[in-house]
From TrEMBL:
This is Cell wall hydrolase/autolysin. It holds the Pfam family Amidase_3. It comes from Pontibacillus litoralis JSM 072002. GO terms for molecular function: N-acetylmuramoyl-L-alanine amidase activity. It comes from the Bacteria. The lineage of its organism: Bacteria, Bacillati, Bacillota, Bacilli, Bacillales.
Length: 328
């Protein structure tokens, strides 16, 4: 089990730590850390300890943070911050990641994995890997990195920092970097597929696109319309949600739900019954045309046919060979 100690820098009300407009640094740091933890939980063989106060109320002292990580026996430590130049809006910009002064190959490897992904997710200038004598890096006994996501007083960076969806992607980037460092494997996908009915959990907080999920859509059952790696498009609310935010309610009865079968060739025969005989031919379909409903796949003679339904509800049979037909 790999042990990851992670914290958002400062507390909600730590003095100073503000954008020129008064936004709190911890808010940015926290959103990233929350997303990192969510995404890390998709992996197996990893356990997480949060070093800051998740409510933000208390600015946990630095010594308490490193003691916590050291006593727990963390394998790595990650702390997330946002930079400041002089507290006035300017065009300085970019992401940088720190390790402790001197040569620390493991910390540097972790920094590289995380930094490159964070730069990509933020889309800001790459200021590179740096070294400094920060408490969190010096007093921790495991490989430790400090990420400075962007500048709070940059008129460029703040635009990205104010987008919840960007902060979420940055959090995921940190998690993917950690996963790459440890070569973690994703947990077994629950194999939710199109047509399945799922319940949106009450604990769900944000759509996959980053917006807050209103309470009235939670706890209800929806149909999965589209699947994209770890996220699902729910038909009734036309919104993408993350895998961990849904629970399966019922499996779709068929693998072919909502799928058309179409011909790849002109003049493809279809039949009145499961048969390959000329006598049972019911008609022909042209290339790109087909049937809106596939019921099942049947073994017919030496090959396979799909039992299909046309728009009027009539049942026919057509070859299932991928040379001639495709599902879409
Ligand atoms: Zn900070």
């Amino acid at each position: 089990m790999k042990k990851v100690a992670i914290g958002a820098g400062h507390g909600l009300n730590t003095r100073g730590k503000r954008t020129p407009d008064g936004e709190h640094e911890w808010m940015f740091n926290n959103q990233i850390v929350e997303a990192t933890i969510r995404r890390l939980n998709d992996y197996e063989g990893v356990t997480i300890l949060r070093l800051d106060d998740p409510t933000g109320k208390r600015d946990v002292p630095l010594e308490e943070r490193t003691n916590k990580a050291n006593n727990w026996g963390a394998d790595i430590l990650v702390t997330v911050h946002h930079n400041a130049y002089d507290g006035n809006w300017g065009t300085h910009s970019g992401t940088e990641t720190y390790t402790y002064i001197g040569s620390w190959p493991n910390a540097e490897k972790l920094a590289r994995e995380v930094h490159d992904r964070v730069v990509k997710a933020y889309g800001l200038t790459d200021r590179g890997l740096k070294k400094d004598n920060f408490h969190m890096l010096r007093e921790s006994i495991m490989p430790a990195i400090l990420v400075e996501g962007g500048f709070m007083d940059s008129s460029i960076d703040i635009k990205q920092m104010r987008k919840e969806a960007v902060l979420q992607e940055v959090g995921y980037a940190v998690a993917e970097g950690i996963a790459a460092y440890f070569s973690l494997k994703k947990g077994n996908s629950r194999d939710i597929k199109k047509g399945d009915r799922v319940v949106l959990k009450l604990s769900a907080s944000r759509y996959a696109t980053g917006e807050v999920i209103p309470d009235y859509v939670k706890g209800k059952t929806y149909t999965v319309q589209q699947v994209k790696s770890d996220r699902f498009l729910l038909q009734e609310i036309y919104s993408w949600v993350e895998e961990q935010d849904v629970e399966i309610k019922s499996r779709s009865s068929s693998d072919y739900d909502d799928k058309w079968i179409r011909s790849k060739v002109d003049g493809l025969r279809f039949y009145n019954k499961p048969s390959w005989s000329d006598d049972d031919v019911a008609g022909y379909v042209q290339k790109g045309y087909g049937f809106p409903v596939v019921i099942q796949k049947l073994k017919v003679g030496n090959g396979y046919q799909y039992e299909v339904k046309n728009s009027k509800g009539s049942i026919y049979y057509i070859t299932a060979h991928s040379k001639y037909v495709y599902l879409d």
